[in-house]
Amino acid sequence: MSDSTVLIWPEHTSRGRPVAAVVRDDGQVHLGVAAPAELAGAPAGAYVRLPLDLLTAGFEQAPLPDGTYLALRQGSHTVFERGQTALARSADALSRPIGDTGLRAAAAVPNVERGPAGLGAVPCLVVAVLLVLLAALLLLAASPLAARLLRRGPVAAAAEASDEPTFGEALQREAAAAPPPPVPVRAEETVVEVQVEPGIFRAYDIRGVVGRELTPQVAALIGQAIGSVMAEEGLTDIVVGRDGRLSGPELAGGLIEGLRRAGRNVIDVGMVPTPVVYFAAYHLRAGSGVAVTGSHNPPEYNGFKIVVGGQTLSGEAIADLYARIRDGRLHQAAEPGRLAQEDVAEAYIRRIADDVQLERPLKVVADAGNGVAGEIAPRLLEAIGAEVVPLYCDVDGTFPNHHPDPSEPHNLQDLVETVKQFGADLGVAFDGDGDRLGVVTREGAVIFPDRLLMLYAEDVLQRNPGALVIYDVKCTGKLSDHILRHGGSPLMWKTGHSLIKSKMRETEAELAGEMSGHFFFKERWYGFDDGLYSAARLLEILAGREESPSEVLGALPDAVSTPEIKVPVEDDPHAIVARFSAAAQAPDGPFAGARLTTIDGLRADWADGWGLLRASNTTPVLVLRFEADDEQALERIRALYREQLRELLPEANLEF
């Protein structure tokens, strides 16, 4: 036992079983083995430090083809490596965990070749190493040395204790320094025919049910289709990130595989909000990015939001991806693209905090709804000078507390109660991937996004008189007048984040917003929708006013209005809206006295209010919204829409 030092280690035994890990003692790296024990009747642990070669012997003996790379890693530390070290950066893409030890085997090859059982060279290599290491660790845990250590008991162990770091402390240090776990990429090419549902290719993005419509194989084909578009445009680099959904890692892995198959170089930024993916595309000068996210949809959904060459894909560009897959028009590169990992969260926070600082502190409750924004939102808001009370900021892809959709008022009730409980100045809520924002006041009033856009417009137009401000067809009728009164140029446009961004690029608008909570700042930012940045800009405005946040928000023009009303339908909602719109435009019909807008559904504006019917582009529902000067006018407009819809849908529940 002369080569070991025994320490008391009370806090990190593993469910009553011995554990092994690599630790750093006296400036050297060793293999540590710990086991549970008792000390004076209290739970404790015993620890033995062993030579590292007991663990690395398996790596030294494993077969290693020429030109390949093999490593044993724990957190950010490379314990042992062999082969072509130039491949070390990309080896984590194919790493595999070694049981629950915290260790992982990482490997890389420059070109993928088929191996036994249809596996590629790297998977074969990783499997071989895993078998060797698992056998070594099992033998080690059952070795006479470990048994003698346990038989000696805690008193003898305590007698040999020193002031060196404990095994638990060493693990904590390694964990603090470790990067986010890499997204695995499968090296083998798809060799079976994969059925791809055309219905997942939507107007704004790609979205479907995991396991039924979206699988890693489908994701790989989508990645290869995106990579094919990039190849035609001469684009090589692309950022990939994912939200906190349980299916995210495997779908991101499939997507990355497909992108690399098309020869694209992938920068994996890990689990981050969608706007951080967009930011990374600018920050890392990639120009393209894909966020693997189901946004605000139920947990069983996931999808892809895609930017190629600075343009968010939508409409025909999304349909073209399906056509490429259907027709087999997929680029296959001679060599796979490179893969790198980057952590951009701190750069994102620093970029915003360098520009946005509060003139006075505000206390704010931040509700992430267990979505991915919970990883960054509290840190960001604290960095700009706010006091933050986090609510549901632990990322959980099952969304156990409430659905992460701030456009639904019932999802904001916990936020309202928490704001009141802590006496906060304001409450902010984010959707599942962090690109939308919801706001409540200290008194519990929900501030709809179209009214928030009024406040943003006031602020932006102070520095950019005459600037264009875009809003979607669901926004308040008072918004246009408010923009005009503050020296701006209002423009109503179609609903949809990708459609709004496209219109912003076309018109060079400084600001845009949607009723759903998407806000797009070109002034001082990059023009993409970002709920986190929008929250920072809101707090900046409110902290610069003498009035309280509730007073500032309460002074914005208001009317009697409804939230979005969603009516599920079995038939094609677009066809229903088309029939409704055609009937409404009849010269002698009930809509004859209204100003009709048909860019997205049918919006009818009267002197005292307006109504809207449109088809959702993401789910099979009809979307309605109404606003008026008083309740009587509101009910009149609602009744008109209800009666006209009932003629088209006699069996539907239209009690809105």
CATH topology of the largest domain: Alpha-D-Glucose-1,6-Bisphosphate, Chain A, domain 3
Termini, distance in Å?
A: 78 Å
Strand count:
30
Domains, number: 4
CATH evolutionary superfamily of the largest domain: Alpha-D-Glucose-1,6-Bisphosphate, subunit A, domain 3
Radius of gyration: 29 Å
SS-based class: alpha+beta
Continuous helix count: 18
Helix share, percent: 25-40%
What's the CATH class label of the largest domain?
Alpha Beta
Largest sheet: 7 strands, mixed
Overall 3D shape: globular
* Low-pLDDT stretches: 1-15, 111-123, 135-192
Mean of pLDDT: 84
CATH architecture of the largest domain: 3-Layer(aba) Sandwich
What percentage of the residues does DSSP assign to strands (E)? 15-25%
Q: Summed up, what is this model?
A:
Helix content is 33%, strand content 23%. With 656 residues, the protein is an alpha+beta fold. Strand 10 (237-242), helix 6 (248-261) and strand 11 form a beta-alpha-beta unit.
Q: Overview of this structure, please?
A:
InterPro entries: A-D-PHexomutase_a/b/a-I, A-D-PHexomutase_a/b/a-I/II/III, A-D-PHexomutase_a/b/a-II, A-D-PHexomutase_a/b/a-III, A-D-PHexomutase_C, A-D-PHexomutase_C_sf, A-D-PHexomutase_CS, Alpha-D-phosphohexomutase_SF. One of its GO terms (molecular function) is phosphomannomutase activity. It catalyses: alpha-D-mannose 1-phosphate = D-mannose 6-phosphate. Keywords: Isomerase, Magnesium, Membrane, Metal-binding, Phosphoprotein, Transmembrane, Transmembrane helix. This protein has 656 residues and is α+β, with helices and mostly antiparallel strands. The protein folds into four domains: 1-66 and 112-178, no CATH class; 198-343, Alpha-D-Glucose-1,6-Bisphosphate, Chain A, domain 3, CATH 3.40.120; 346-558, Alpha-D-Glucose-1,6-Bisphosphate, Chain A, domain 3, CATH 3.40.120; 560-648, Alpha-D-phosphohexomutase, C-terminal domain (TATA-Binding Protein). Strands 9, 10, 11, 12, 13, 14 and 15 form a seven-stranded mixed sheet that branches. Strands 25, 26, 27, 28, 29 and 30 form a six-stranded antiparallel sheet that branches. The chain has a five-stranded mixed sheet with strand order 17-16-18-19-20, with helices on both faces. Helix 1 (53-61) packs antiparallel against helix 2 (121-141).
